[in-house]
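help with these tokens:
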Amino acid sequence: MRIKVLVLCITLFAGLGSQAQEKKWTLRECVEYALENNITIKQSELDVEATSIDRLEAIGNFLPTLNADASNFWSSGLSTDPITNENRTQTFRSSRYGVNVGITIFSGLRNIKRFQRAKLNKLLSQYNLGKSKDDIALFIANSYLQVLLNKESLKVIEKQHEITLEQLQRTKDLVDAGVLPQGDLLEIEATSADELTRIVQAENAVQIALVSLAQTLLIKDYASFDIAEQEYLVPGSEMMDKPIDQVIAKARESRYEVQIAEQNKLIAEKDLEIARGAYYPTLNGSFGYDTRESGAKGFGRVLDETNPVLTQTIGFVEGTNQNVLNQSPNLLLVEQNPSSYFKQLYTNDGLRYGLSLSVPIFNGFSARNAVKRNKVNVKRTEFQLEQAELDLDSNVYQAYLDAKGAAEAYEAAQVSVKAQERAYEYAKDRYDVGLTNAFDFSQSKFRLENAQSQEVQNKFDYIFKLKVLELYFGIKIADIKL
């Protein structure tokens, strides 16, 4: 019974393993997987998380600070009693406790500006994350289409080789029958051998492209990695029918390059405002509560029970010289133990509160230089924004022309394939009746194969360049249908 269960489990896991190895990756799956696992994107996500912390820190600048402190000391020898401020030679313990509250009332509006800058910086990090995702998605799409191109090129060569094998058998029969010379058979065999070599090269190109795509996706199982086998039709030309000005305007709204440059300019302007805040006074408020206790013994006065009344002469009566006496309690100075811990804390506490004003007068030109430096940075970001807009317009226009040229090249390749197919059929008919030799027939077949390979290459080149143009128009790679 246990053996049957073990065999069943092994069979089940083997089946699951074979299913996992048979997985075929679509373009959407590759893009989504890359967006979840790419290291560059993960780093950009950490940058977004860090800006959230910066924003929380900027909010904290508006809140008061609250700090508590406590201290406990042992003193020996001549020391100052923290309660009576008397210097005494003794060993005692003392402690102090306090709570302090501070708040910035005015600092040239710098806290407000820092909060606004934190929000701008968070938006900038989100734009950078979006750009990283677009760049990775476009790179994945290019790698994916390269695999498709290599696979289609392999199919073209394999299909032509099948025709060559059929022609080889037909030529062999004709040579054996004495209809064709031996040289025609050798020519066909040489063509077949050349095609076998190119098939091996094409298979290697497919494997290299698959490994490159797997490495980009951070997939280590190169042996079983493969993409989905499906027909990829040439997309419609709706994008090519749009005016170039409309595509450029849409790109300025949706592309992250210009948005990043705009955010950098806004952040630079906010940094300038923060630097100017150093010209203004700073007003701070504070409140504190303190208390203390000491274990040092003190001195006190007590009534002398044996002689409770002290009589002293304080003067004489004028004329009679009679003594004027004064009686007071006879108090003796004696050493006493300290009061209880909590009683001292209650008795010795106190409050303190106030305002502090700091007016900048001269600080070695630091504030003025900071303002000048930030002015320069604002100018720099303005030029960067202008350059980003020019680059985007140029890239969109170039992408439009590339897609248009690729479409025309693909149409021309289709016409060429049809013409070469007719030429091949004509050469084949002439070869079958012995009106042409094997070399001329092989050349016709070779031209057809080149035309078909060029058609495949132009097809995927057009697809990729059209996708680049769609990306500029704001269509995400993951939403693009092939």
